[in-house]
UniProtKB/TrEMBL annotation:
It comes from Winogradskyella litoriviva. Its EC number is 3.2.1.40. PANTHER family: ALPHA-RHAMNOSIDASE (EUROFUNG) (PTHR33307), ALPHA-RHAMNOSIDASE (EUROFUNG)-RELATED (PTHR33307:SF6). This is alpha-L-rhamnosidase. It is an enzyme of class 3 (hydrolase).
Length: 910
């Protein structure tokens, strides 16, 4: 019986599509289903499953009216496609699953989960865009860009019967904060976030049933420019030329008597710009004047007769309204361990000890009528000077004007800053500045932590911290390049290099797939397949860039390998092919060598070129174009293979081989040497990692690469494109000691150099700042830029030792590569689609100790880097093959084992 009980343990952790748990306002009427098997001795794997889907809970499991998958003999427990009846907007759908284990015993049915669809079609919207025409009295801000006064909008309404359920569907051309009867509807930050608004605007869905009252109610919205009508979108012809922000809002009520009511945004709404937020800009900050506060404006009893009527506008067919397909930004971490750095006559400087993105929360004594000015900075100069030059034209300053004497509390709402230090001035001169005056609120898209990495080395741990802070700081609804200066754009190249590391550390599956949809929408504007440098594409440049545009192929491929979700390959396939077509269209005189724009190996250290061109490094763009052309064609061939498109698989394989051949002939001599006086590490890295050389040339090129690294005194010499490839290439070459040597270098250029200079995030340049000389004087210089954090993938995969060997960790590789010079232990865990996997090693008394966790429904190849089969101890006994552990191979210095799910401890002598 006890056995049977184990067998009956139900599946857990049910999710739909990209890891959504019981979502409402869900975007996908064709979802996929995923579940995890419980961790138990009896459940090693799944031999079959059954999913049942119904329109009400009561129909489950036996009368599933929407879909019954029936028993499917399959090991698949992730991303199983829904194949039932067509689902509609607003529909609430219930589902559960059971599985059969390896012994063909059925589990119990899982708990019932649900999802509720949002408004999927523009025709679902009865509301109109509504708002005041603020363009007419807006002021000219930095570089003459219009600044709209934020709007306060409201609508009172009366309900005669009780509400059974209510959903608020809402979005904005701009950003908003919505209240119902004076209460916050959500804690989302700056919804609806940023998409190419000329193609698609995401809509939010909130369950507001509990906030409504019988009798009088009021819906109230604060609305500001955000990305849509702010200078970050750069005007141009986009987004209706800085049109006044507007809201679109549809409150749908189902009453207890079954009747329906709608409260819609339209010309009957009232509005004012005479509220306390006087101005708000992403780059430039917020101005809040407490003298303009309007008490009770967002509750039902407020008299809005003196407010203006808004203008309305029908929704257009051309811009899709679609439920948000990833999680919005939230306040995630409060930093209150603050240091008071200095107090001058009129100002005080505070240090959060961590470079964050978000807003300050200040509690400061003030005198009526005075203005508190809050400035931000990433790092002070050694003499304590408050430095803001690297924000360039972004004013990044908040102002608060006090309406009375006493302590004021203020958190800006419609802006965000990138900062570690903040300066206050304008507070009550009689008060003594105190650390309690300031907190930092770190904000980012609301994804969960997915992995952990730690080791015995303090600086390596600081690097992990810098990587993960740099990631979160730049995942503000879209993946941005930097979060602080007058840029904050979705650079495709940066995204391409960081995606794998991001997926290890955070559950960014939905975050990436949402952004990739924006990428495809912007690509569709260019018939030749061009993928813009930035997405959303507010620059509207007519050039595509190698290594940047390839994000449309490389990021989907990474997502697929790490999650096992084939959907992203299907969604991206045509886009990827078009991008390779763009390369083809750029081939001029020499076959397979595209002549086109590239940012090159961006920010390579020690460039030989003069300052203006130095950022692009020394690897010629033609070489980079050709390398990425080949690589993207190669990946498309692999993707075609996964999708069963055999013709394309061959066609793109042939193309890749032809381009690779041209690459070798054009740029390398018969000795595998890069044909340019100024040698670069990246030219070799691209050729080797993208597999562009004939085998004999590859060996020669590898030696030239080693030579180059030696010439650099064992420092890296790579920019944005080369850096992620360096550990992979050296690893394949077996040059592990060398990789450790480079990684643990303390001098410029290296990862630890920035740590030695006080970095708490990754930097844009290897030498963005030094304690001695302060900021690198070049104007483009961010202290929060994730590209060089791409080393994070190798830290998980090889220092700690966890990698996905078959898509989505169906097969796991545990293969740590310890280094005894620098480390005595390292450990990582990852929430795989099947459950938690772990690899943790330490070396003590000449014994190598490895703890491994392998989740159900997977297998693992475990490679123990020391010892032999004879001296291997497993879970405290001498190693013997069992049904759980099979020997694959054993030689003098490593043992390879195939493991079934479970928890294992391995010990062996060094
Ligand atoms: C700057 C940033 C960004 C990079 C582009 C090419 O804007 O460094 O990260 O991708 O240049």
């Amino acid at each position: 019986m006890s056995c049977n009980q184990e067998y009956s343990r139900a599946a857990e952790n049910l999710t739909v599509s990209e890891n959504f748990k019981n979502p409402i306002g869900f975007y996908n009427a064709n979802p996929t289903f995923s579940w995890k098997l419980p961790v138990s001795e009896q459940t090693k794997s799944q031999s079959a499953y059954q999913i049942v889907v119904a329109s009400s809970k009561e129909l489950l499991p036996n009368n599933a009216d929407l879909w019954d998958s029936k028993k499917q003999k399959s090991k698949q427990s992730t991303f199983v496609k829904y194949q039932g009846k067509v689902l509609e907007s607003r529909q609430k759908v219930f589902w559960q699953v059971r599985y059969w284990n390896q012994d063909k015993n059925a589990s119990d049915w899982s708990e019932i989960n649900s999802f509720e669809l949002g408004l999927l079609n523009n025709s679902d919207w009865k509301a109109k865009w509504a708002g005041l025409v603020t363009a007419k009295d807006s002021i000219k801000g930095v570089r003459n860009f219009l600044m709209h006064h934020p709007q306060y909008l409201r609508k009172g309404f009366e309900l005669s019967t009780d509400v059974a359920s209510a959903r608020l569907y809402i979005t904005a051309k701009g950003v908003f904060d919505v209240h119902l009867n004076g209460k916050d509807v959500s804690d989302d930050v700056m919804p609806p976030g940023w998409t190419p608004y000329n193609h698609r605007i995401e809509t939010m869905t909130y369950d507001v049933t509990e906030l409504l009252e019988t009798g009088k109610n009021a819906l109230a919205v604060e609305l500001a420019s955000g990305w849509h009508s702010g200078r970050i979108s750069r005007g141009k012809a986009l987004y209706e030329n800085f049109a006044s922000p507007k809201i679109l809002c549809q409150l749908e009520l189902v009453m207890k008597d079954g009747s329906k009511q709608y409260i819609l945004s339209d010309e009957t709404w009232k509005g004012t710009t005479n509220g306390p937020i006087r101005l708000a800009s992403i780059y430039d900050g917020e101005v809040y004047d407490a003298n303009f506060e309007i008490s009770n404006w967002n509750i039902a009893t407020f008299d809005d007769s003196s407010w203006e009527l808004v203008e309305s506008e029908a929704i257009s067919k051309d811009v899709r309204l679609a439920p948000k397909r990833h999680h919005s930004v939230k306040n995630k971490i409060t930093i209150d361990d603050v240091e008071l750095v200095s107090v001058n006559k009129n100002s005080a400087i505070f240090n959060l000890k961590q470079n964050i993105v978000g807003v300050p929360k200040v509690k400061v004594p003030m005198k009526k009528g005075d203005t508190l000015k809050i400035r931000f900075s990433e790092m002070l100069l050694s003499d304590g000077t408050f430095y803001t030059k690297n924000y360039r034209s972004a004013k990044s300053t908040d102002y608060y004007i006090a309406a009375k004497n006493g302590v004021v509390e203020y958190v800006p709402k419609f802006t965000f800053h990138g900062f570690q230090f903040l300066e206050l001035c304008g507070y009550d001169k009689n008060a003594k500045p105190d650390v309690s005056w300031v907190q930092g609120i770190a904000q980012h898209s609301n994804f969960e932590k997915n992995g952990t990495f730690t080791s015995s080395h303090e600086k390596l741990n600081q690097l992990q911290s810098n990587i993960t802070w740099g990631l979160r700081d730049n995942f503000f609804d879209i993946p941005t390049d930097c979060p602080q200066r007058d840029e904050r754009l979705g650079w495709t190249g940066d995204a391409q290099v960081i995606a794998p590391t991001a997926l290890f550390n955070y559950d960014t599956h939905a975050f990436w797939t949402a952004w990739l949809q924006s990428l495809r929408e912007n690509q569709s504007e260019h018939n030749n397949g061009l993928v813009p440098f930035i997405v959303p594409d507010v620059l509207q440049n007519k050039n595509g860039g190698s290594g940047w545009g390839d994000a449309c192929v490389m990021v989907p491929w990474d997502i697929y390998n790490i999650t096992g979700d084939v959907t992203i390959l299907e969604e991206s396939y045509e886009s990827a092919k078009k991008w390779v077509g763009y390369y083809q269209s750029k081939v001029r005189n020499k076959p397979y060598i595209p002549i086109m724009h590239s940012f090159g190996d961006w920010l390579q250290p020690y460039p030989s070129k003069s300052l203006k061109k130095a950022n692009r490094g020394d690897t010629p763009k033609e070489l980079i174009n050709t390398a990425y052309f080949a690589h993207s064609a190669h990946l498309i061939s692999k993707i075609a293979g996964v999708l069963g498109k055999t013709d394309d698989e061959k066609k793109f394989m042939d193309l890749y081989k032809a381009v690779a051949n041209a690459f070798e002939n054009e740029f390398f001599d018969e000795n595998g040497k890069f044909k340019q006086d100024r040698q670069t590490q990246t030219s070799y890295l691209l050729g080797i990692y993208f597999d562009l050389f004939k085998p004999e040339t590859k060996l020669k090129a590898q030696n030239h690469l080693l030579e180059e690294i030696k010439n650099a005194d064992y420092h890296l010499g790579t920019g944005f494109l080369g850096t992620p490839l360096l550990p992979k290439v050296l690893d394949d070459m077996g040059e592990i000691e060398l990789m450790y040597k480079i990684l643990f270098k303390e001098t410029y250029p290296s990862w630890f150099y920035s740590i030695n200079q006080g970095a708490t995030t990754m930097w844009e340049r290897w030498n963005s700042f030094s304690k001695q000389d302060g900021y690198n004087p070049q104007s483009m210089n961010s202290l929060n830029h994730y590209a060089y954090g791409a080393i994070g993938q190798w830290m998980y995969e090889r220092i700690a030792g966890i990698a996905s060997l078959e898509p989505g960790y169906k097969k796991i590789r545990i293969a740590p590569l310890p280094n005894t010079e620098f480390l005595t232990s390292a450990s990582a865990s990852v929430k795989t689609p099947y459950g938690k996997a772990g690899s943790s090693w330490k070396i003590e008394n000449s014994t190598f100790n490895l703890d491994v966790v392998i989740p159900p429904n997977t297998t693992a190849e475990i490679q123990i880097p020391y010892g032999t089969q004879d001296n291997l101890i497993v879970n405290a006994s001498t190693f013997k093959e069992t049904s759980n552990l099979k020997l694959i191979s054993s030689d003098n210095d490593s043992i390879k084992i195939l493991a079934e799910p479970g928890t294992y401890n391995f010990q062996t002598k060094l």
